[in-house]
Design goal:
- It is built from nine helices and two strands; from the N terminus they run E-H-H-H-H-H-H-H-H-E-H.
- By secondary structure, it is mainly α.
- It has a two-stranded parallel sheet.
- It is elongated and about 60 Å long.
- The two termini are 17 Å apart.
Length: 139
């Protein structure tokens, strides 16, 4: 069972704003957030990897992450996935902000947007409180 509860919401938001994706992914793996936000998050991480010319990492994320593979099979989001594949295949190492993040956007603005959307779906609860709730539920 996954819940949309985190121990420290401010820390998660800070991790997103600062691009600490390893921490964000660790947290996201244990909470329940919408598929749409997962798509946005993984797509954004993919773009940042391309921007840093981390092509092999971007390829691995695209072909091995569950959210992006789900995007591939989702009828409404298949075009987004194909765009990611196209960017990967037509890689020349020189991407503009517009190509990666959209017109008038950059990675910082996209990070902020992802954080705001994620924050709307999450609640903060002290770890001890969660344990109490679980213990009460098991009784």
């Amino acid at each position: 069972v996954s819940l949309n509860v985190v121990d420290n919401l401010d820390k998660l938001m800070s991790d997103i704003h600062n691009g600490r994706w390893n921490r964000v992914l660790e947290t996201v793996s244990s909470i329940g957030i919408s598929t749409e936000i997962l798509f946005d998050l993984f797509e954004h991480i993919f773009y940042e990897l391309l921007e840093m010319n981390e092509i092999d990492s971007a390829r691995s994320l695209l072909y091995n992450s569950f959210p992006l593979q789900s995007m591939k099979t989702d009828e409404m989001h298949n075009m987004r996935y194909r765009r990611l594949e196209q960017l990967l295949m037509n890689n020349n190492g020189n991407f503009t902000n517009t190509q990666l993040y959209g017109y008038g956007l950059n990675k910082e603005k996209k990070r902020k947007e992802i954080a705001e959307n994620m924050e709307k779906q999450l609640f903060e609860s002290q770890p001890s409180r969660l344990l109490s709730l679980i213990n009460n539920a098991l009784k």
